[in-house]
Fold this sequence. Notes:
- The termini are far apart.
- The strands form three sheets. Strands 1, 3, 5, 7, 9, 11, 13, 15, 17, 18, 20, 21 and 23 form a 13-stranded parallel β-sheet that branches.
- With 399 residues, the chain is an alpha/beta fold.
- It has two domains: 5-225, no CATH class; 231-395, no CATH class.
- 32% of the residues are buried.
- It has seven helices and 23 strands.
Amino acid sequence: xxESPVRDVLRVCMRIMSLILGVVVCLLGxxxxxxxxxxxxxxxxxxxxxxxxxxxxxDYFAFGPHVEISGTVHGDVYAxxxxxxxxxxxxxxxxxAGGEVRVSGEVTQDARIAGGTVTLSGKVHRNVxxxxxxxxLTDSSHLKGSAVIGAGNLSLGGSIDGxxxxxxxxxxxxKAIGGDLAVAAPAIRLTSRASVGKNVRYWSDxxxxxxxxxxxxxxxxxxxxxxxxxGEEAKRGLAGAKLIAGLISFTSTLLLGLLLxxxxxxxxxxxxxxxxxxxxxxxxxxxxxxxxxPLLIALCMVSILGIPIGLMLAAMYVVTLYLGRVCVMLxxxxxxxxxxxxxxxxxxxxxxxxxxxxxxxxLPLVGGxxxxxTIVIGLGSIxxxxxxxxxxxxxxxxx
Length: 399
């Protein structure tokens, strides 16, 4: 029996996950970065360059606005940047992410590429995974293994010896594929230069455009797009996914909140008191931090030395955002229970605030505003409370 599109999607997800993990390694890893920085040429200060003729023994890590790898790396390459050019030799795996990625060199192992625009014109000796907006494999490209590609627009002009799996908006094939071709796309075209060595399976509402002269040595099989991805079924599936995500978020927030109240009861009480006493100051500071901290993180990530600082700031920022929501829910629950003159404990107030918050967050339009206000207020109140706590400890010469 032919494999279902679900299995193909799972394979794509596994490949993309390996790509994401590789990029994370690129950001977290510590390796030797060869950079040319000449005071006579200011433009080099914005580039990480491995020049032609240079060799690196072992893995190579490169991160910056512009990355150029023209030398030889006897190991794996992990690169990320605004523009990334790889026209040297990678004697290992290539894992790269960027706004614009061009690979015209040679990769002896696997290649994992993600970018807004991806151009591959070199040779890869094993398998390739590509995710991008516009993806172009030129006539000179040659993939000796299999390929998994997700793209908005895909032009396959190079030869691929193995199987190919594609999910895209538009697909144009104009060269040879040695194995099977499985493609899901609204628009599929095989030009007169295209050839497929085995079978073609496609998922689309329309027939593919196959020019005269194109050859398919196996069978061509059309599979209808599953109803779950269309019309009312898709809407119901999306609603179900949102409901499940909401339940997971509700449960995790409940557990985290109860744990936080148990471990830091005094701190959470001070945070809620800060919201009560200085709501406008908290709101203004939270709004500034919400947009200011990501900008600071981005500035840190531009520099190799600043990457660890940026990563730590990012982790602290995400944790603070999440914990801030818990404190706002506690404050909301206290306000509501006071309004109805009901006796309450800290736990009861938090649960009441949590329930009301999630009900409000489900409302159209209003829900988005409530969520944003909760994030901003929580961020501002926690940072103000932390600052006051640190100042107090310093005055008491505790820290």
